[in-house]
Structures are given as C-alpha cells and as structure tokens.
Design brief:
D-Maltodextrin-Binding Protein, domain 2, alpha/beta, single chain, globular, five-stranded mixed sheet
Length: 350
C-alpha cells in the first residue's frame, strides 16, 4: 500500500513538472515571436526605378535593412514631385528623389520634411550630367551660348538649375539665353537631334547614347564646374523624430552606399576600376530598374561613399532659386537639412 502511494506521488510530481516545462516553453516561444515582431520596424520608402536608387536596392537585396531590424516596404512612383509630397504628408516614411524648386516651395508653404543623406551628386571627374550641342554645331564653349536656345526638362527642375549655374560660372545669366522646357529626357534628345535647340542638359546614360548615335557632343561636364547635390534621401517629420529607427535605417543605407561605391566608383590612376562586387551590383540595379546591364554600366551616378549630404549646397540652391523667383519665399537650409542622424549612424558602424 505504501509503495503504491509513493509511486502515485512520484507520478503526479512528474506530470506536474512536465506541464510546467511545457507551459514555459510555450510561453517562451510566444514571447520570442512577439519580440521578433516588435524588433522589425516597418518603413515605407517612396522611390523611382532609377540607377541613383542603387543603395536602396542594395540594402534590400543584401539584407542590410533586415540586419538593422527594418522591414523595408517599397512604394514605386512615376515622378519625383509626388514622392516629396508623400513624404511630407507622411504617406511614406522615406522619400528618395531629386531636389527641386518645388520641394523648396513645399517647405516655404509649411510642409515639413528633412533631407538626411546623399542619393546622387555632380562631382568633378565623374560623368553624370553635361551640356551638349549638336555634333554639327560651331558652339565650342558655354560663352558661345549667348542668345541661343537651351533645352531643359521643366522650369524649376534640376536641369534648369544646372543650366543657370553653368551660365553664371561662365559670365552669362538665364536672361542671356532662351531656356526651352520640353518636359522629358527623350524630348531633350529629340530636340537636339532635330536642331530645334542649340544645346541641352542631359544625364548618363543618355549622354553616351547621343554621342554613340553621332548627333551630339559634350562641351561641359556639370561636375567639372560646380559641386551639386542633385538628389537626396528625405525623412518625414515623424520618422525623423523616431531617432532610433531613423538611425537604424541610415546604418543600413550607409552600408549600402559603401558597397555601391567600392563596387563601381573606385578609381586607380584617375580611372574607375571595377571593384570586387561590380557584376553583382550592376545585376541588382538592372533587376530593379528593368534595364540591361550594359545600359546600367554607362550611367552610374556619383555618391559619397558614406552617403553624406553636401549640406552646404542646399542653401546655395535655395538662394539661387529665390534669386530667379522660382520659389515663393527664401528659407533657411537649417529647416530642411538634418545630418545628425547619419553622423550617429556612421559612429555606430565604426
């Protein structure tokens, strides 16, 4: 009798122990899942299918965002301005696009967003944007464009800004020429080929295409004349205020800009040489932009290796647009630039 009681007690204790252990395991599994979900911050990015979005493509494809606890969701756009509008309105957390007069007008009008990182700039020694004339033209310099027609995409665009700055750096002004908006890159190429204008601003790979087809020649590379922050990474106000998530996002972005730079922008003896991951990066960009790798290779924009913004240029742009009466009211660049978040991200990457 005593033995049966002892055996029963042991059995009850064993069952109780197993139930507690199973309960703890279940609790741990449930808790672990919850922690994982909590660590993954959903971040929506608005961008275009352009080569200059390469670091974002790389960060997604290589898992850099995931490593930092970021669940990156992409919203594809067809034009630059809607991205800025969506970012300011909080419809996306992050915007990646060109910096134009319309962006500054939004800020002047009370919209709130901040530019935090580089996404493409004009830099000496790298072919990105250039002023071209017809191959039959006798125009040989910017100075020769007085009283001529220059094709640009739109009034207040990056092409408008580059044309204006190039003229001023060569002793002319916008009033000395006729700027002709044609609304698209293909339109610029067509008007140059048909000689409806005397010169156009173009970017790569379109510059190379025009030269290969034999109807255009470069008279000035923009980056050889001015340093110019053409496009950037924007944060909505609320996302920028979430400094922990914003910094993690920029850590992933900086990893990607370094990966991009080392693969396609490294120079030896003044010439770009393919890096270790060159083919991989070209392949990633081609996949995300739906273009052939050969085309991608001809239009790789310059970016700072660490993704750092050319912050001083933002005020230069604002002042120029205000002078040309292309923005409604001048603003302080300090209202729209935040480099502290990337600085912190780079410190944490060291």
């Amino acid at each position: 009798m005593r033995k049966r009681v002892i055996f029963a007690l042991i059995s009850v204790l064993f069952l109780a122990f197993m139930l507690v252990a199973c309960g703890q395991e279940s609790s741990n599994d449930s808790s672990g899942t919850g922690d994982s979900d909590a660590e993954q911050a959903s971040v929506e990015i608005g961008m275009l299918k352009l080569t200059s979005s390469a670091p974002l493509f790389i960060a997604i494809e290589k898992g850099f965002f995931e490593e930092e606890g970021i669940d990156a969701e992409v919203s594809w756009f067809e034009a630059a301005q809607p991205i800025a509008v969506a970012t300011a309105g909080g419809d996306v957390n992050v915007g990646a696009t060109g910096i134009t007069a319309s962006l500054y007008n939004m800020v002047a009008g009370g919209e709130e967003l901040v530019i935090v990182a580089d996404k493409g700039r004009e830099q000496q020694g790298y072919s990105s944007s250039a002023l071209l004339v017809h191959s039959d033209s006798d125009i040989e310099s910017v100075e020769d464009l007085k009283d001529k027609k220059i094709g640009i995409t739109q009034t207040g665009s990056t092409f408008h800004y580059m044309a204006g700055r190039l003229l001023e750096e060569h002793g002319l002004t916008s009033a000395d020429v006729e700027l002709v908006p044609v609304n698209s890159i293909p339109g610029l190429m067509e008007t140059l080929q048909s000689k409806q204008v005397d010169a156009v601003l173009l970017n790569e790979p379109n510059i190379t295409r025009v030269m290969d087809e034999g109807y255009g020649k470069v008279i000035k590379q923009v980056g050889d004349v001015i340093d110019y922050q053409t496009s950037g990474i924007f944060f909505s106000k609320s996302f920028a205020e979430d400094t922990d998530t914003a910094t993690k996002f920029l850590k992933a972005y900086a990893k990607a800009t370094q990966y991009y730079y080392d693969a396609v922008l490294t120079k030896e003896n003044g010439e770009i040489v393919p890096g270790e991951n060159y083919d991989e990066v070209i392949g990633i960009i081609a996949e995300y932009t739906d273009q052939e790798p050969a085309i991608i290779e001809r239009g790789l924009p310059y970016m700072d290796r660490d993704g750092q913004l050319l912050a001083s240029d933002i005020q230069t742009q604002i002042d120029w647009y205000a002078k040309e009466e292309l923005i409604e009211a001048p603003i302080d660049a300090g209202e729209i630039v935040n480099t502290d978040l990337l600085d912190q991200a780079l410190k944490e990457l060291e």
